[in-house]
Amino acid sequence: MTTTAEHSASAAGAPPATVAGLMAGIAGTGTDPARGGYTRPVFSTAEQDLRAWFTEQSELRGLAVETDANGIVWAWWDVPGASGPRARDNAVVTGSHLDSVPGGGAFDGPLGVASALVAIDILRARGHAPVRPLAIAVFPEEEGSRFGVACLGSRLLAGAIDPDRARRLRDPDGNTFADVSAAHGLDPNRLGPDTAALARIGQFVELHVEQGRGLIDLNRPVALGSSILGHGRWRLRLTGQGNHAGTTLTEDRRDPMVAAAACISAVRAVALRRRNVRATVGRIVPVPGGTNVIASAVDLWIDVRHPDDAVTAAAVADIGHEARMAAAGEGCGMELIEESLSPTTHFDTGLRDALAALLPGAPVLDTGAGHDAGVLAARVPTAMLFVRNPTGVSHSPEEHVEDDDAEAGALALADVLAGLG
Ligand code: GLV
Ligand code: MN
Ligand code: MN
Ligand code: MN
User: Which residues does a 6 A CB cutoff place in the pocket of ligand 1?
Assistant: First the structure.
């Protein structure tokens, strides 16, 4: 996957690699012809290939690569001459993720990783000598696309999910996270809070493609992050009577698919009741899922977001009420189960002020997208940089970043890393 050009570009004394060049090196990994874009679930061949690429690129730059007990990959630029158990304390850490949603864009995750590698090159080319250790971290299952809980790696690290619950999470094929992580070299019994790894992070800065239109409207390439909207995921299970599509009269049915249709409409109606509520049904799974079978059950996943956590809670309560009525109208049962909940996160203002001084005039934006930075922000001073996405579309193959903006992002990240470390 690494081209000769990339090797020579990042060799000692050579000019920095470009973000566009690094991204081109992984453009063929995890493409999804059926959906379009990329499908790179955690621990899939595509995601593992990207991890191998990251390791190779890091080692090429002389970084020391290690994978921790939660499957987070760390690439370290150590302070010259520093040694001993505390040599990596108070590190400046950047990074992002390499997994994707189904049929996602090229940049959500990998842009932050490629930009971090280029930022290291820029610092090297400037002759930067780190006085604090610097690391790139790559987090597993940021999207929660396979096991259902977003930011699973950073949640485990930060103690924001019970490891027993994490071990029991199942992918759509029924495999547990414990089994799949064991098959990829992790010890399931060691998953969980890692106070030593967390204590090494002095500050965390994640660069990410912007997932909305903020920078388009401002006509700027790079912004600082201010906050992440509170968000959560709920599974709505509707249960009815599985039966034959040809022999069961319409009036005799208890069809959870009909209740599901009413629930999807209700989710939209509830979202419109309060300003700025974002509520989505993006995944629906009928059981058993046959064309000539009336479903016995349907699972719908509902994603709800709002800057005020009380409004999110009220919207979810309303959705539960509407769903109960829709289910009852069809003679079905219903259960609404919270799968994850992340409160609204405001990034550390002191760190943001420091970044603003390093990137004078950079605009400040909030985001409705979740990030590992949001999880880490509860434990360590955290900041984000966003890079303009000229389509304003994300979690879609249409997500895009222009080459010049990508390089501007890496340069901004280099300035931040140099300024902090
Ligand atoms: C992840 O990108 C999310 O915001 O759901
Ligand atoms: Mn992301
Ligand atoms: Mn995403
Ligand atoms: Mn995300």
Answer: 143, 150, 369-370
